[in-house]
Design brief:
The chain folds into 3 domains: 272 residues, Beta-lactamase; 89 residues, no CATH class; 137 residues, no CATH class. The chain contains 19 helices and 21 strands. The termini are far apart. 37% of the residues are buried.
């Protein structure tokens, strides 16, 4: 082959390759329904197998209309009932909260609520302005509730209940389930189910209506969300349309019964994909509800016979056309804009919260969203205000938690690819500064004043660095790699996620992940590894000591020892300590047969009550052991060996009590 011919061949090959590659990087148009359907079909075909989902439903919104909606699979797998976006009810979970925040903004624009005054102004029970540690603090406002910065700790216990009889009325729930206040109001993003329920109760008090009635009249009715309800269980009329939730196990889909949620406004909604799409449309339309009206462009009075259509009439009829017009509103435009305006963020480069919506930046587009999770349903609500596009998706499988993120990311990458490349380059941190970041962190959304703190500390996040100096953030077994783009600001390598750090005396104390998610550095004494090491180490030392004493009981009568008071107390302590650990394990493993949650979370059981009695007994025994040990060293009647042994046992018993106290178990 001649050189010129060879060059021409190479050039043509490159042009062909370039022609093939261009469609992959160019944004696809969302208007092509055939292409959109094929894209979603492919996504959900993969997710059905990947996440073991019997049923999926999706709606795509554009310019105030539902552009596309479709159901996949089954709402009732056993009877092969289709999962229909129009008629099938599912549990949107925390997407219920959008209705609470919308109601709050309605009352605000009516002048009935002030977002910046103490909520005690509206409550009919006192909410003390005091932190759980006794420190006086500022008052909580509706602004704080709307942005998840009220400072409440989280509570899992009592969030789900075993049946409808266990659901308390909203006023009782607000009073009886008041969580600890662990952060100064307006300082820390910490997602709160209770905070949302409290806001809903304030809606009740201010409007004079039960929350569910208010929503039915002021939101469901104008939006024609006719198949949405907060009733648990749903009415007989809607029961046949309710999808089952499923858990995939041993190669089969296992159906579950209806889930009952105590904090009803925070996650108790049942709805259809169509109804939830209507809610997105209302917020994309800045509160407006559009209808059709006849617009006559020609001033001539034209009368058309309903049953006759002459050529003249057909010609005149061309002057008639329909145009969208605002026929109702759930929010005034200014209120809707305020609701979608950024209200709180830990750092200018890290998206935070609007009034109720989680803010994000994806591919350079501003995204407002919310997620919803029960045990057996997972949903995602997303919209791009500037592009007038939205997406809603629901899954009826316990294993489908991550699926909505995969779908949305794929949707954005295909239809809204990056506007421009981020010029910042993630870099390794400066050599010698790694220790400022390295450590164990826990979520600010957690429980700290009750025994649920154990779950909070177990859900740990670690920060380390690889050999190249890039930050490694590990959570739930998944590790992400970040590089520094600005001081204290890191971006994911080959990704878009940004995180920022807050420092105190040069040491990182907080990690800001975006939205209502903050990580706090865990002190060494609250590190779950430290706690487990103390508990297991103490158990081993005390058990070996007890076995040694028992062995001495079987010696010959002349060498046989007699148990002293100290040995008897230590023996009782060891036995009760082992029993206590067994009770904790039993409480964690005794789960609801369908929900898979520990029964202790659903309703108090005798197991935990028995544990608290034993823990108080252990405290008394530990004090007695400490007194005996001090007496042995003061009197010095015994040999050094026994004194050291008693000291070791006393240290173990004291350490166990200290850990129990740390975990709010003593």
């Amino acid at each position: 082959m001649k050189p010129k011919t060879k060059q021409l061949h190479v050039l043509c090959s490159l042009l062909v390759i370039l022609f093939i590659l261009i469609p992959q990087v160019k944004a696809q148009t969302i208007d092509s329904l055939t292409e959109l359907e094929a894209f979603l079909d492919g996504i959900f075909s993969v997710q059905h197998e990947q996440y073991k989902v019997p049923g999926i439903s999706v709606a795509i919104i554009q310019d105030g209309e539902i552009l596309f909606s479709k159901g996949y699979g089954y709402a009732d797998f056993e009877n092969k009932v289709p999962y229909d976006p129009v008629t099938t009810l599912h549990r949107p979970g925390s997407n219920s909260k959008i209705l609470v925040w919308t109601a709050v903004m309605q009352l605000m624009e009516q002048g009935l609520l002030d977002l910046h005054v103490d909520i005690n102004t509206y409550l009919d029970f006192p909410l003390p302005n005091k932190l759980s540690n006794g420190k006086q603090t500022g008052s909580i406002t509706m602004h704080d509730l709307l942005t998840h910065t009220a400072g409440f700790e989280d509570q899992a216990t009592g969030l789900f209940v075993a049946g409808p009889d266990a659901i308390q009325p909203l006023d009782q729930y607000a009073r009886n389930h008041l969580p600890g206040r662990v952060y100064e109001p307006g300082t820390t993003l910490a997602y709160s189910n209770y905070g949302t329920a409290l806001a809903a109760y304030i809606v009740e008090l201010v409007s004079g209506q039960p929350f569910h009635e208010y929503v039915e009249q002021r939101i469901f009715a104008p939006l024609e969300m006719n198949q949405s309800t907060f009733a648990q269980p749903v009415s007989e009329e809607l029961e046949a349309q309710m999808s089952k939730g499923y858990f995939y196990t041993n190669g089969n889909y296992k159906p579950a019964t209806f889930e009952y949620i105590q904090a009803v406004p925070s996650g108790g909604l049942s709805s259809t994909t169509l109804d939830m799409a209507k809610l997105i449309i209302a917020h994309l339309n800045l509160g407006a509800i559009y209808g059709e009206e006849v617009v006559i462009e020609d001033e001539t009075n034209i009368e058309l016979d309903e049953f006759e259509a002459s050529e003249e009439n057909e010609k005149d009829a061309e002057f008639h056309q329909t145009a969208p017009t605002v026929i109702n509103r759930i929010l005034e435009e200014s209120t809707a804009k305020l609701m979608q305006t950024p209200q709180f963020s830990d750092h200018p480069e890290i998206p935070g919260m609007t009034y109720g919506f989680i803010e994000a930046d994806y591919n350079g587009y501003r995204v407002l969203s919310h997620g919803g999770d029960t045990v057996f349903f997972h949903t995602g609500l997303y919209f791009l205000p500037e592009e007038n596009v939205g997406l809603y998706v629901s899954y009826n499988s316990a294993q489908a938690g991550p699926a909505r993120f995969d779908l949305f990311n794929s949707f954005m990458d295909r239809y809204f690819p990056p506007k421009e490349q981020d010029s910042s380059i993630p870099k390794a941190v400066a050599v010698g500064t790694e220790d400022n970041y390295t450590g164990t962190y826990h979520f600010a959304r957690g429980n700290f004043t009750q025994h649920e703190i154990l779950v909070t500390l177990m859900n740990r996040v670690t920060v380390n660095f690889d050999e190249d100096g890039y930050l490694l953030l590990t959570a739930a077994g998944n590790t992400s790699r970040f590089g520094e783009v600005n001081p204290g600001i890191f971006r994911e390598i080959n990704g878009q996620e940004k995180i920022s750090f807050t420092f105190h005396n040069g040491k990182a104390t907080k990690i800001h992940l975006g939205g209502p998610h903050t990580l706090l550095r865990t002190p060494w004494y609250r590190n779950i590894i430290t706690i487990i090491s103390i508990l297991i180490g103490s158990l081993l030392i005390m058990t070996l000591t007890l076995l040694k004493w028992i062995k001495q009981l079987f010696r010959s009568p002349r060498n046989r020892i007699h148990f002293s008071i100290g040995q008897i107390i230590a023996t009782i302590f060891i036995i009760i300590y082992i029993t206590s650990l067994v009770l904790v394990i039993d409480a964690l493993t005794n789960t609801h047969p369908e929900l898979g949650l520990p029964m202790e979370i659903l309703q108090p059981t005798s197991t935990l009550n028995a544990f608290f009695i034993l823990s108080k007994t252990l405290l008394v025994l530990a004090i007695l052991m400490l007194v005996i040990t001090i007496r042995l060293w003061v009197v010095r009647n015994d040999k050094v060996g026994p004194r050291i042994l008693y000291t070791l046992i006393s240290l173990c018993s004291t350490s166990v009590i200290w850990v129990f106290w740390l975990l709010n178990l003593a």
